[in-house]
Specification:
It contains 2 helices and no strands. It is an all-alpha fold. It has one domain. It is rod-shaped and about 190 Å long.
Length: 178
């Protein structure tokens, strides 16, 4: 048992020594330690305040950046919508012009076909008129030739006179403008 007493005593002795050591430290460094603790607390408070201020400033800047970005996106979207609208208007105008031109082309083609039909009809009429006129003149010439032929056969004109008469008729027919 004596050993147990010694062990308890040995354990108490370091605890007592620590306490004495702490007391000595407090006596030597106590005031400086308090001052140092106060400075550390002040520094911690200042650091907390600075971090809080920095965080608020950062949040404000971030908020402003978000706001600016959102405004720019909104402006960009507005411009894109305006450009899209302009593009749609241009596309509609072009489509309208194409439709108008197609309509005009169709009208022009119809008018051209009608003009061709009119010209063809006019040419047919003129051709028929010329053919009729030519046939009338041909008939008149036949009648005239028969009369001359009867006159020649009744007057017994010689063949030379008949040849001259036919040559004159041929010349007259060539010179006749129809």
């Amino acid at each position: 048992m004596p050993n147990k007493k010694n062990t308890n005593k040995d354990q108490q002795e370091p605890v007592n020594q620590l306490t004495e050591l702490e007391q000595l430290r407090f006596i030597v460094f106590g005031e400086a330690q308090k001052k140092l603790d106060n400075q550390l607390n002040t520094l911690r408070n200042d650091l907390d305040k600075g971090l809080k201020t920095q965080q608020e400033t950062f949040s404000d800047h971030l908020s402003k950046i978000k706001e600016s970005t959102q405004r720019q996106f909104s402006d960009l979207e507005t411009r894109l919508q305006r450009i899209d609208s302009t593009h749609d208007d241009n596309e509609n105008n072009l489509q309208k012009c194409i439709d108008d031109m197609a309509s005009e082309h169709e009208m022009f083609a119809t008018a051209t076909q009608q003009d061709f039909k009119n010209i063809e009809q006019s040419l047919d009429n003129e051709s028929a008129s010329l053919a009729s006129h030519f046939n009338e003149q041909l008939e008149q010439l036949k009648i005239y030739l028969e009369e001359v032929s009867k006159d020649l056969s009744s007057s017994k004109t010689d063949r030379k006179t008949l040849a001259k008469l036919l040559a004159t008729m041929a010349t007259n027919l060539q010179d006749d403008p129809l």
